[in-house]
Amino acid sequence: MLAGVSGTIMRQGDEARPVLRVGELEIRPDEGLAVAGGRALRLSVREFGLLTALAASEGRIVRREDLYREVWRDELRNGDRTVDVYVRKLRVKLEEALPAWVFIHTHVGFGYRFAPDRSQAVHTASTAR
Length: 129
What we know:
Elements: E1 20-22, E2 25-28, E3 33-36, E4 39-40, H1 45-56, E5 61-62, H2 64-72, H3 82-97, E6 102-107, E7 111-117
Antiparallel strand pairs: 1-2, 2-3, 3-4, 5-7, 6-7
């Protein structure tokens, strides 16, 4: 799935990865770029990796452990909240860019699901967990 962070995170072998488009959000894995409403998002390498991993599994719940393993290339330690912190940062940036959308949904005890939804636009990043 995602290449190691120290290398080029956006390339896997020589195969180009498809651009993911969801509403006004476009994720370009090979360029390391996410565009929201026509403007590039300023994401860290980890935030971009997390967004790409979630979007690649659109509609499915992804366990925190699996996200950590894919993005950080390590095993999640008991009590480690790194994934939660980065999901929060990512939510804030997505909400600032596209306030009418909610992209990441929490399933307590299970993980996170990437499912773009306009109907929950009344939530804010601080309440949409």
